[in-house]
Each structure stands twice: as C-alpha cells, then as structure tokens.
Amino acid sequence: MILSVSRRTDIPAFYSEWFMNRIREGYVYAVNPFNRKQVSSISLKPEDVECIVFWTKDAFPIMSYLDELEERYKFYFQFTIDGYDKDVEPGLRDKEDIQETFIEMSKKLGKERMVWRYDPILLNEKYTVKRHMEIFESFFERLAPYTECCVISFIDLYEKTKRNTAPLGMKEITKEDMEAIAEGFSRIARGSGVKLQSCSEEIDLDKYGIEHGSCIDKARIERVLGGTIDIKKDPTQRAVCGCMKSVDVGSYNTCQHLCRYCYANFNEKMARAVRETMYDPASPILCGRLHGDEKITERKVEHIPVSYMQCEETALF
Predict the structure, then answer these.
(1) In sequence order, what DSSP letters do the residues of 103-115 get, joined into one string?
(2) Which residue range forms the structural domain that includes residue 60?
C-alpha cells in the first residue's frame, strides 16, 4: 500500500503529532467526506505500508520525527515552495526559513527523496510571468543542489477556488503564458541536473525539456524501495494525472496555511473552527469525532509486489 499524507491537508506542518500517534497505534480512521457514517479503518503497520508520500509546504514540525519514521518506513516528500506573499498564502512562515528546512531535510534524507514543487502558478497584476521568473531563479539557485526534481503546475479554478481567489484579480493563463514560463524555467534549470516536470497538465512542454510527471511516482517509489514494483494508475484521479494508486489519510477543511487557491478548504473561517474545536492528537480521526452511528469497515490492505533482485543498484538505502 502507498500511503498519501496528504493531498487534503498539510499533515507534516500541522498534524505531525497526530500522525505519529497513529503510526504508533498502527491504524487510522478515515471518514468518507461525503458520508460521515462511512468510516474506514486503515492499517499503518510497517508491514502493510510499502511507501509513504508526504505532501507539505512546511515540514519543520515533522523533522523531529524523521529518525523514528526512518526506522520503520520508506518515504519521500513532495515539498511546495513558491513565491507568493501572505496575500495568497497567509498561513505560511517566511519562505527563506522554509527553504532552510528543505535544505536541512535534504542533507538528512538525500536529495532523491526531496521533490521541490513550484505550484500552482497563478497570474495577476502582482504575480506576472516576469515576477515568477525572478522568484524561480532566486529559489532555484538556493534549492537546486538539494533536489533532483522540480515540479510545476498551473492553477485550476474550481468553483470554490474562484470564490476564494476573487480578491486576487487573477487573469486567465493562456497557452502563450504557459510556454513563456516553461521556456524561462527550463533556461534557468539547464545544466543543473535538476529535472523539470509538469503535474496534471494537458499541455505538452517536452520541447522545453519539461516532461509529464506524477506525484505518486512509480519510478521514484522504486528507487526508495530499492526494487521494481507492480502498481496501477489511480483510477480516482483525473485523466491527466499520472499518479499511482494510493490511500489518503487526510481531511478537508483542516489546513491552516489558508492558501487562497486551495481546493481542500471551503473557507478560512471553517478551517480555523475545525482545527480549534475538533483537533485531538490522540483521536483516530483527524479533526473529527465518532458519533456512535457510524459503520467502521476495515480496509483491505493491497500489497504492492516488490521485486528486489532486479533493482539492487538503484536502492537509496
């Protein structure tokens, strides 16, 4: 089983204590976001989890737990560091401090397990193509020695994000905008050894050296595990998403970064209230309580066949 931690909220930044408690207990409850009475009990035992993919914008709170995680699990990080100020990302620490966290983690874990994400890219009068170029070049100079891969994507405007981003005055990102950014980023990265990839994008940017990538990435997981795996694409994701099948243990409306473009929070007020009133580090549920009328079903563990003999030279450990 591949564990996603998490597309729905930043567990490393805000819920590391809760997650480590679940790791020690060996299970977590995940509530169906569309029907609270349907609850899955998911095993977190090391023998049931082949790899953990962490998603974060600030992994500092989980750093103190890395040694404990390393003893029992294989994992890597999808770590987003972009150039927005608090008008877009009001809950984040200073970006220079976050970059320092990225660097420290890379020195500890190895750059192969630190994927830098510069996304989602949005445009308005303040965040122009030119400004993104300047920010990316500045960040790239500092982060490039500590990663093998940088992932970019362009913002998707869901209905809830249209509402939350209205004050930003965003402009539509055209094909010409995407290609200008791709060309500029590719020029900045040229010769660095850092591979550029796009995430869930229909546009073909191959001519700029930017290939279609995936976050739950088969090739990266194989390197982390030190073997080849038999795994299928996740059928629940969009057609343009190349991610492999995984199990997510996060909850919507819980992230405290409060990014204006985020699809996982309905609004800032709700996200703050959920954290303040429902978060219990000892609970089997992230920011929730059982009412007693739920049906709890043990989720069947889908092990991923791993062949270690064929891939010994690629092992990270």
Answers:
(1) HHHHHHH-GGGEE
(2) 2-314
Radius of gyration of the chain (CA): 19
The total of other beta-carbon atoms located within 10 Å of residue 216's CB is 24
Closest by alpha carbon to 109, among 35, 59, 159?
59
Check: CB of residue 40 under 8 Å from CB of residue 282.
no
The C-alpha atoms of residue 157 and residue 104 are separated, in whole angstroms, by 34
CA distance 88 to 83: 10
166 Cβ neighbours under 8 A, 6+ residues apart: none
DSSP structure class, residue 220: H
Write the DSSP symbol of residue 9: S
CB within 8 A of 163, min separation 6: which ones? none
Angle between the 95-109 and 129-143 helix axes, to the nearest 10 degrees? 40
How many other CB atoms are there within 10 angstroms of residue 78's CB atom? 24
For the residues of 246-263, what is the DSSP string, one character each?
-EE---SS--SS--TT-S
| Half-sphere exposure in the Cβ direction for 251 (13 Å, CA) | 28
Q: Rounded to an integer, what distance in angstroms lies between the CA atom of residue 158 and that of residue 217?
A: 25
Contact of 53 with 246, CB cutoff 8 Å: yes
Q: How many domains does the chain have?
A: 1
Cβ–Cβ under 8 Å, residues 222 and 303: no
Global pTM value = 0.93
Strand order in the sheet with 149-154: 210-213, 195-199, 149-154, 114-121, 75-80, 51-56, 2-5, 247-248
Contact of 161 with 125, CB cutoff 8 Å: no
Chunked mean pLDDT (size 10), the chain, 317 residues: 96 98 97 92 97 98 98 97 96 97 98 97 97 98 98 86 86 96 98 96 95 92 93 80 90 95 89 95 94 94 81 46
Distance CA 192, CA 170 (A): 32
* CA–CA separation, 225 and 208 (whole Å): 31
CB 59 within 8 A of CB 13: yes
